[in-house]
Amino acid sequence: MENSTATAGDYALEARGLSKSFGSFYAVKDVDLKVRRGTIHALIGPNGAGKTTCFNLLTKTLTPTAGQVIYEGRDITGLRTAQVAKLGLVRSFQISATFPHLTCLENVRVALQSNHGKSFRFWSPLSAIRSLDPRAVELLEQVGLADAAHLQATELSYGKKRALEIATTLALDPKVMLLDEPTAGMGHEDLEPITELIRQVSAGRTILIVEHNLSVVSSLCERITVLQHGELLTEGTYDEVSNNEDVITAYMGGVDAL
Ligand SMILES: Nc1ncnc2c1ncn2[C@@H]1O[C@H](COP(=O)(O)OP(=O)(O)OP(=O)(O)O)[C@@H](O)[C@H]1O
């Protein structure tokens, strides 16, 4: 299934025999996953397939029952979320939640402060905080929020909140970004801008995305891994997986449509 010309060094992130059980129930079972460096790779599957659990295992939010997580050739199975974030493996949309009553600029500044090895300090000298502003403004421009720099996060539309979350993630200087359902709950009008933004920030990075919206997946992702009942069902291009009989059956058995 995997591109035969790829070598071990071509992968930014790998799961090897990854499993997670809750009691006797396996939410994820013996999953092998290889995310090629510089690509956008999707993890899809019907409801309850194990996508979120797998994601939590890859970002070290959950500890696996068995298996390994390999990041840039290094076994990170024993590391914690903050440790892997410092190595450049950063999860968006859950751990990088924004502060609703800070402005967009302040939110990005807080993320930049944490990336500079300092947690958010209310007593930091103003000059030290202000020195982060040029980079914060640059990041806001990159995600199309230059005009919203002084608006509180809570005042933003849903789509713009997601763009702000992407800016705070970029502040951590990720090499690999993991996006958990970036278009969840979004209105139709926000889909295209957020898809374009993900495409844009993928330049020079690797992205793994859990996404329910299959038209977003088809337009963004080179490779797609399909899970079902916690196990790997298949992996391939969108055309390959969408024409796979097992995938069609898996989706028709659930509430999702392919
Ligand atoms: N902490 C937990 N304890 C027990 N069972 C769990 C736990 N977390 C997840 N599960 C179960 O594991 C299975 C996989 O759940 P998971 O949330 O990973 O699936 P998913 O593919 O992300 O689903 P969805 O698309 O609905 O978000 C489900 O049956 C779920 O009920």
UniProtKB/TrEMBL annotation:
Domain ABC transporter: 13-254
Pfam families assigned: ABC_tran, BCA_ABC_TP_C
Gene3D superfamilies: P-loop containing nucleotide triphosphate hydrolases (3.40.50.300)
PROSITE patterns linked to this entry: ABC_TRANSPORTER_2
Gene Ontology molecular function, alphabetical: ATP binding; ATP hydrolysis activity
CDD domains: ABC_Mj1267_LivG_branched
Keywords of this entry: ATP-binding, Nucleotide-binding, Transport
GO cellular component terms listed in the entry, alphabetical order: plasma membrane
SMART domains: AAA (SM00382)
Domain of life: Bacteria
Protein name stated in the entry: Amino acid/amide ABC transporter ATP-binding protein 1, HAAT family
Organism: Pseudooceanicola nitratireducens
